[in-house]
């Protein structure tokens, strides 16, 4: 799966959600049942990986903690666009709070 497709899918599936999370149905509607399910599985795996990253809180605020995680995550996944990382960061922040 190419990086452009993943970036588009991350943004499409998370953006405009009140509670950040991957909306599988949006991806199925956009790409069709078979491809949409495969893309959704990949996006969910990426988001879960980010959410599961360890953090040493120290005296960090929630925003600083999310920025710390997303900085490290972007190094692991340089193929992700800034828009995709922002949406993934929303999911991370929601899960940390």
Largest sheet: none
The proportion of strand residues reads under 5%
**Silhouette:** elongated
- The SSE string, one letter per element, is HHHHH
Helix percent reads over 70%
- Count of individual helical segments: 5
Q: Quickly count the domains.
A: 1
Mean pLDDT: 95
* Total E-strand runs: 0
Low-pLDDT segments: none
By secondary-structure content and strand pairing, the structural class works out as mainly alpha
What Rg is obtained from the alpha carbons, in whole angstroms?
13 Å
Determine the N-to-C terminus distance.
Answer: 32 Å
Question: What do you see in this structure?
Answer:
This protein is mainly alpha-helical and 97 residues long. It has one domain. It has helices at 3-14, 24-31, 33-51, 62-76, 82-96. α1 (3-14) crosses α5 (82-96) and α3 crosses α5 (82-96). The longest helix has 19 residues, at 33-51. It is elongated, with a radius of gyration of 13 Å. The termini are far apart. The mean pLDDT is 95.
Write out key terms for the chains shown.
single chain, 97 residues, mainly alpha, 5 helices, elongated
């Amino acid at each position: 799966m190419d990086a452009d497709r993943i970036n588009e899918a991350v943004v499409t599936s998370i953006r405009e959600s009140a509670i950040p999370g991957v909306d599988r149905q949006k991806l199925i509607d956009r790409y069709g049942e078979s491809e949409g399910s495969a893309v959704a599985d990949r996006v969910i795996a990426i988001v879960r990986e980010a959410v599961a990253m360890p953090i040493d809180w120290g005296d960090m605020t929630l925003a600083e903690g999310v920025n710390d995680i997303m900085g490290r995550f972007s190094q692991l996944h340089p193929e992700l666009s800034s828009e995709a990382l922002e949406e993934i960061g929303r999911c991370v922040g929601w899960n940390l709070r």
